[in-house]
Every structure is written in C-alpha cells, then in structure tokens.
Write a structure and sequence with these properties.
15 helices; globular; mainly alpha; 307 residues
Length: 307
C-alpha cells in the first residue's frame, strides 16, 4: 500500500471534522440558553461551581485515559495555571452567569463574540503585536456592532443617557470578555511544557477551588425546592457538553485543519445562540441584533486574518 493511500485511510474525513466543529458552535450557542434557564433557580456562583464540578471530574478522567494522569507542575506552572483558573474559570463564569441573570440569552451570546476582538486589541496596545489596517477595521466594526446591540439601535439616545443602555448586565459581560481575553493571553505567552488538556484540567481545578472557597466564605441562598431535573440537566449540559466534549472536538479541529481555520467556526456561536434563544426561550430577534451581530461577526472575521 502506498504511503499516500495509507495516510488517506488513517486520516479522518474532513467532513467529520467540519460537522464536529459546527456541533461545537451549536452546543456553545446552547450554553447561553442553559445558563439563562439555570439562573431562574440558582445564584451565579452556585451555577458556576456546579458546572465545573462536573467538568473537573470528566477532565481528570480524560487526562488519565489519554495521558496517563496529571504531571507534577513546577512553581511557575502552578502560578500560571492558577492565573488561568482565576481568569478563565472563576471570574469569567461568575460574570457570565451574572450577566445571564439580567440580560436575554441572545444578546449575551452576541456580546460574548467580542472575546477575540478584545484579545487582539490588548495584544496590540499592551504587547506591541502588529494589527494592521485590516484588523483595526475589524476591531472598529465589531465595537460599532456591539454598541448597536447594547443600545438596541439607539446610539444617539445612549449618548445622552448612557445608563439607560449600559446597565448592570452589560457591565458583567464586559468583565467576562476582559477575563477571557486575559485568560487567552496568559495561555498564549506564559504556558510552556504542558498539553492543552493538562493546562485546562489544572485551570479548571484552580477555578473550582476558588469558586468553592467563595461559596464557603459567603454562602448563597439556595431554594432547593425550586431545583428540577431541568436545572440538573442544564448543569450537566454546561459541564459535560459545553466544557469537556466541545474542548475535545475543538482541539481535534485544530489538529486536523489548523487553528486559523478552526476559529472561523466560532463565528457561528452567536448565530446559534440567538436562534436557540428565540426557539427555546421565546426571545425576540430585533433588527438591531441582526445588524449589530452581522457587524460583530464581520469584524471578528477581519480581525482573525493575519496582519
């Protein structure tokens, strides 16, 4: 058998990878609906803790199955993974669930799509990474789109009364976006010698520890009588599917087709988020959401191009 034919037979068809990445975007879009529903019965910190309790168990099991366990970390790696857990797990999820408790799921999904834009902007302004005209145009378009979404198309009204458009939920989302951008930059520049799975598992462990400590320090009020199988299902969905399975499939995509082609699929996340919010929660799709969302997605596409 020729080498080319052997490689063709042992390499999974790309259509399977594309379907998995589309499924990842769909599931991530669904996390906004699941999170919004969960906020009806649980406080944000409890929901975040429950999500990562499920995720950590599955991540550890996966690490032992594929890598034979979790390696002992150096002092520097412990510090870096702690920072990853503090930003990408602890702060991000607290803000994510807090925003979903006050904002519609569809609008939250659209605003979260600013993550890569914010990351690129920080890298350009603070780390001197070259952006170029095309990427600056993308950043500008995305932030104009976000402004249209937040103000529901009333930019002039918001200019006179910013508090009417930019409320508590939007502040939470801004903090979530900044937390994720910080998480991304730490992982990009400071993490060495660890696989993506091991780094993510340790970050999740640190994040779960911080969430648990915060709960013990200030115990939230939980009405267990309001908990339902739907709430439990939402926690499992967020922890198992939205965190672990999507992580596996996403990195299969990175390995098969490269990071630049894989990241394009994340543009589908806000699209699925808005559609699922409409179908499952009955949220309306406003013209401002369509226009703003199109600008954000277009801006993200431009920004993800090489400078």
């Amino acid at each position: 058998m020729s080498t080319a034919l052997s490689a063709e037979l042992t390499t999974p068809p790309l259509i399977g990878i594309y379907l998995k990445l589309t499924a990842v975007a769909f599931v991530w879009g669904g996390t906004f609906v699941a999170g919004h529903s969960l906020m009806q019965t649980l406080p944000p910190i409890t929901a975040a803790t429950a999500r990562f309790f499920v995720a950590v168990i599955l991540l550890i099991a996966w690490a032992y199955k594929t890598e034979g366990g979790l390696p002992k970390l150096t002092a520097q790696q412990l510090l870096v993974t702690f920072c990853l857990g503090a930003t990408g797990v602890f702060l991000y999820n607290l803000c994510f669930f807090a925003a979903l408790s006050t904002l519609p799921a569809g609008r939250t999904a659209l605003l979260v799509s600013l993550n890569p834009i914010t990351t690129a902007l920080i890298l350009g302004l603070l780390f001197g990474e070259r952006l170029g005209i095309t990427r600056w145009l993308g950043i500008t378009l995305a932030f104009i789109g976000a402004a249209i979404i937040v103000t529901q198309g009333d930019l002039s009204g918001a200019a006179h009364d910013l508090s009417s458009a930019f409320g508590q939920g939007e502040i939470y989302m801004l903090c979530a976006v900044m937390s994720w951008a910080t998480y991304t930059i730490i992982g990009r520049y400071a993490l060495k010698g660890l696989s993506a799975l091991v780094a993510t598992t340790y970050a999740a462990l640190w994040g779960l520890l911080l969430l648990t400590a915060a709960m013990l320090f200030n115990p939230p009020q939980i009405n267990f009588a309001q908990l339902s199988w739907l709430s439990i299902g939402a926690i499992i969905y967020l922890g198992a599917f939205g965190t672990v399975i999507c992580f596996v499939w996403y990195y299969q995509g990175v390995k098969a087709i490269g990071a630049s082609r894989t990241v394009v699929f994340t543009n589908l996340v806000p699209v699925f988020g808005v559609l699922l919010a409409m179908l499952l929660l009955g949220e309306p799709i406003l013209i401002s959401m369509l226009l703003g969302g199109a600008l954000v997605i277009g801006g993200v596409t431009l920004t993800n191009r090489s400078p």
